TrEMBL record:
One of its GO terms (molecular function) is structural constituent of ribosome. It comes from Wallemia mellicola (strain ATCC MYA-4683 / CBS 633.66). It comes from the Eukaryota. GO terms for cellular component: cytoplasm; ribonucleoprotein complex; ribosome. Its main location: cytoplasm. Belongs to the eukaryotic ribosomal protein eS1 family. InterPro entries: Ribosomal_eS1, Ribosomal_eS1_CS, Ribosomal_eS1_euk. This is 40S ribosomal protein S1. GO terms for biological process: translation.
Length: 250
């Protein structure tokens, strides 16, 4: 083939554009990155390609706290406002290295899960994990709980998760994950059955969401102004400036 038949190299990003990803106002960091998409062309709309994308981030980055880095948060793109992708909470998990560091010899591991509906209509599945610990002045090396005690602890875990998640909306539930409020409640309630340590909500995932409402999503992002803050600043028209008349000749 001659030199004229060679295909011209085309930049892969020439027909793409970048959008900013925005986290809900419950997190400290709002600008969480950028995502790329093919430009709108014909019947293909760029917004449709962006909606439904799921982003996984470290809670340590979202809240600027390294102590929370063992939590992974999933955020889902629900709406596009200008060049901003507005996300909502979609799930939470724990890193595998943190989970492995909790599992040790001579103790019982207790797990429980429950499906619960929040006050704003989200059906959420919560997974809890806990480990037994030594009683005060205990000499024996092992801290194995009896099966009857494990059943009672699971019952308490189920009740507390149902109560805590069922009495608040999704935003308030996410706020409870950060300080381990539900884990502390479980630890306190099961003290008389068997003392526990390292009690966590290990995982949370959205099973079913209510009908999408843009107003509620904008509330999660601190209102319309906060959600579209990069669109520019409104400038008041001055009254003292008069445009000069066009010149008839130069």
């Amino acid at each position: 083939r001659g030199a004229g038949n060679k295909r011209r190299a085309v930049d892969a990003f020439a027909k793409k554009e970048w959008y900013d990803l925005k986290a809900p106002s419950v997190f400290e960091t709002r600008n969480i990155g950028k995502t790329v998409v093919n430009r709108s062309a014909g019947l293909k709309n760029a917004d449709d390609s962006l909606k439904g994308r799921v982003i996984e981030l470290s809670l340590g980055d979202l809240n600027k706290d390294e102590d929370q880095a063992f939590r992974k948060m999933k955020l889902k793109v629900d709406s596009i406002q200008g060049k901003n992708c507005l996300t909502s909470f979609y799930g939470m998990d724990m890193t595998s290295d943190k989970l492995r560091s909790l599992v040790r010899k001579w103790q019982s591991l207790i797990e429980s899960h429950v499906d619960v509906r929040t006050t704003d209509g989200y059906l959420v599945r919560l997974f809890a994990i806990a480990f037994t610990k030594r009683r005060p002045q205990q000499v024996k090396k092992t801290t194995y709980a009896k099966s009857s005690q494990i059943r009672e602890i699971r019952k308490k875990m189920f009740e507390i998760m149902t109560r805590e998640a069922g009495s608040c909306d999704l935003k308030q539930l996410v706020q409870k994950f950060v300080p381990e409020a539900i884990g502390r409640e479980i630890e306190k309630a099961t003290r008389n059955i068997y003392p526990l340590q390292n009690v966590f909500i290990r995982k949370a995932k959205i099973l079913k969401s209510p009908k999408f409402e843009l107003g509620k999503l904008l509330e999660q992002h601190g209102g319309v102004q906060a959600a579209t803050e990069d669109a520019g600043v409104k400038v008041a028209k001055g009254t003292d400036f008069v445009e000069p008349a066009p010149l008839t000749s130069v």
